[in-house]
Amino acid sequence: SEFLSWFQDQSRFRFFFHPRNQKDFFLSLLTASQTQDEILLEAQDVLENRFQTLGSEKVKLGETINWHKDFKSGKAWPVEPKSRLDLMDLGNPSDVKVPWELSRFHQTWWLGKAYWLTHREIYAEKFRELVEHWIENNPPGRGVNWSVAMEVAIRASNWIAGYYFFCESQTLTRDFWMKFLKSLYAHGTFIENNLEYHWRNGNHFLSDVVGLIFMGIFFQ
């Protein structure tokens, strides 16, 4: 409790946006290219676990999400260390980028914008539900969503944005935030130890570095 109070007090000075400036600056940027109805429709899709990924139609994924499944082909990868995973699976018409895309948590922004617009706790609760379910089903270092550092970095960056969208929520508990911060810190450790160096560094390495910068700012 003491730690979280200190962390939340200090973190408001660290990042690019914070609830303190939502009316003055950030919300105006978010709504510049979207109507309020469009923002709420996007968030409603997330509330109902309905996603459109890599050219698919909108698909309702059920009451809970299988974070390891290509819902377009039906292929699901086992929750095993990345050294044992066959990501390509050339004999199976599947695409590992589908679970990757879902686990990047771009949906954080759709929920966050709607939350700032309406201040309805249903959006904060959905963020909590998705994050907790993801953590429970993706132990560090196991499964496709820990197989590439770039994916971990993108997810970490979106989770950090989620912290600032929802840090003043009245329904998200201290237990949730501690679980969230511990997992997020594990993301940073993973990125640091799995940087994607290459003879010609590209978007993967750049994403790794951006993720580490975000983590460094957030955790000071």
Q: Could you explain the architecture of this structure?
A:
- This protein has about 220 residues and is an all-alpha fold.
- Helices cover about 55% and strands about 0% of the residues.
- It contains 9 helices and 2 strands, in the order H-H-H-E-E-H-H-H-H-H-H.
- It has helices spanning about 1-10, 20-30, 35-45, 95-105, 105-120, 120-135, 150-165, 175-195, 205-220; strands at about 50, 60.
- It has a two-stranded antiparallel sheet with strand order 1-2.
- A hairpin with a 7-residue loop joins strand 1 and strand 2 (about 60).
- Helix 5 (about 105-120) runs antiparallel to helix 6 (about 120-135), helix 5 packs parallel to helix 7 and helix 7 (about 150-165) runs antiparallel to helix 8 (about 175-195).
- The longest helix has 20 residues, at about 175-195.
- It is globular and about 50 Å long.
Please give a handful of descriptors for the protein shown:
single chain, 220 residues, mainly alpha, two-stranded antiparallel ribbon, 55% helix, 2% strand
